[in-house]
């Protein structure tokens, strides 16, 4: 039986984040975290490394998160989640959900080894990578998931020269029961995917695209618009891989039906971090997107 899609009217009203956080104005993480915790529910233990989320949460005794949270070192998020699972098992607790929330730096770079190990072992927790495409908490340095051409504090002139690391594909190669690509601009898609994966075995991996006003260079009020542009241009895809089976979801699924993408130039021109991208580079990226989506169109025929 197919799960009914959540609407804004059916989304639970209970909150697990206190109003008023230390996040930047317009932070996309605030949306994803708030809605994500609604889906996880009260019987959840959180694991968080140094990141923007530690800033959002604040410090005890005035932390904004209502759920129990273990703050750990940068590289140890997934390893700590494994340890919490072992502790709960020793206590006879098989019902509490263990959920790790880490940024792209703490996932794609510093924490990848521990995450890969936990995934290979099949440790039963949910791992969320909130990807604002840089080390934003420490001054906007490049990470493995910073896209090519983006200006950061340590790629200041020509932008990043390397392609964005495809972490969801790396995690899918571990043969996980569930991998999802989500966006803070489509929070109900995130909510439904969390509900869908909770009873699946082993490690579940979520990659969430997070618009970041100070790091990306745009007016904070346009965060959702820019997050949606990333999807509408086909630059970032919403999808899930369930036991090895890939399918597009939400707005990305609808794009296959429409077969019309917004030019990626509009996404790049909405942010100052891409101001050094040349027309030749934009044309090359547009071709990569078009080729990728031609593959999606053929699969749907």
Task: Give the gist of this structure.
This protein has an eight-stranded mixed sheet, sandwiched between helices. The chain is built from twelve helices and eight strands.
Structural descriptors:
globular; alpha/beta; 39% helix; Rossmann fold; 301 residues; 8-stranded mixed β-sheet
Kindly report the CATH topology. Answer: Rossmann fold
Q: Determine and state the CATH class.
A: Alpha Beta
Biggest sheet record:
8 strands, mixed
| Mean pLDDT metric | 96
Instruction: Name the structural class.
Output: alpha/beta
Tally of DSSP β-strands: 8
Helix content: 25-40%
Shape: globular
Q: In the CATH classification, which architecture applies? A: 3-Layer(aba) Sandwich
CATH superfamily: Thiamin diphosphate (ThDP)-binding fold, Pyr/PP domains
What's the arrangement of strands in the largest beta sheet?
A: 2-1-3-4-6-5-7-8
Rg, Å, rounded: 19 Å
Give the domain tally. 1
β-strand amount: 5-15%
How many DSSP H or I helices? 12
- Given as residue ranges, the uncertain stretches (5+ residues, pLDDT < 50) are none
How do the SSEs run, as a string of H and E? HEHEHEHHEHEHEHHEEHHH
Distance between the termini: 24 Å
Structure description:
With about 300 residues, the protein is of the alpha/beta class. It has a single domain, classed as Thiamin diphosphate (ThDP)-binding fold, Pyr/PP domains (Rossmann fold, 3-Layer(aba) Sandwich). The chain has twelve helices and eight strands. It has helices at about 30-40, 50-55, 75-90, 105-110, 110-120, 165-170, 185-195, 215, 225-230, 250-260, 265-270, 280-300, and strands at about 45-50, 70, 95-105, 125-130, 180-185, 205-210, 240, 245-250. Strands 2-1-3-4-6-5-7-8 form an eight-stranded mixed beta sheet, with helices on both faces. It is globular and about 60 Å long. It starts with about 25 loop residues before the first helix and ends with a helix.
């Amino acid at each position: 039986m197919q799960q009914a899609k959540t609407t804004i009217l059916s989304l639970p009203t209970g909150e697990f984040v206190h109003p008023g956080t230390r996040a930047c104005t317009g932070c996309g993480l605030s949306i994803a975290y708030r809605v994500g915790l609604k889906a996880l529910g009260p019987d959840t233990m959180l694991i968080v490394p140094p990141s923007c989320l530690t800033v959002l949460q604040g410090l005890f005794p005035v932390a904004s998160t209502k759920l129990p949270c273990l703050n750990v070192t940068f590289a140890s998020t997934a390893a700590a989640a494994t340890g919490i699972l072992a502790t709960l098992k020793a206590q006879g607790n098989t019902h509490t959900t263990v959920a790790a929330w880490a940024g792209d730096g703490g996932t794609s770079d510093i924490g990848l080894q521990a995450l890969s190990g936990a995934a290979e072992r099949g440790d039963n927790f949910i791992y969320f990578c909130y990807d604002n495409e840089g080390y934003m908490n420490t001054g906007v340095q490049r990470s493995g998931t910073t896209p090519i051409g983006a200006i950061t504090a340590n790629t200041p002139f020509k932008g990043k020269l390397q392609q964005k690391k495809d972490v969801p594909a790396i995690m899918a190669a571990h043969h996980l029961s569930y991998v999802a690509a989500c966006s803070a601009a489509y929070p109900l898609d995130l909510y439904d995917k969390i509900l869908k994966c909770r009873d699946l075995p082993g490690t579940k991996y979520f990659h969430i695209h997070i618009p970041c006003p100070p790091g990306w260079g745009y007016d904070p009020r346009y965060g959702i618009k820019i997050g949606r542009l990333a999807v509408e241009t086909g630059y970032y895809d919403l999808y899930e891989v369930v036991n090895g089976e890939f399918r597009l979801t939400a707005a990305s699924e609808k794009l296959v039906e429409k077969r019309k993408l917004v030019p990626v130039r509009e996404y790049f021109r909405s942010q100052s971090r891409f101001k050094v991208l040349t027309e030749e580079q934009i044309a090359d990226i547009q071709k990569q997107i078009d080729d990728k989506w031609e593959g999606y169109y053929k699969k749907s025929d």
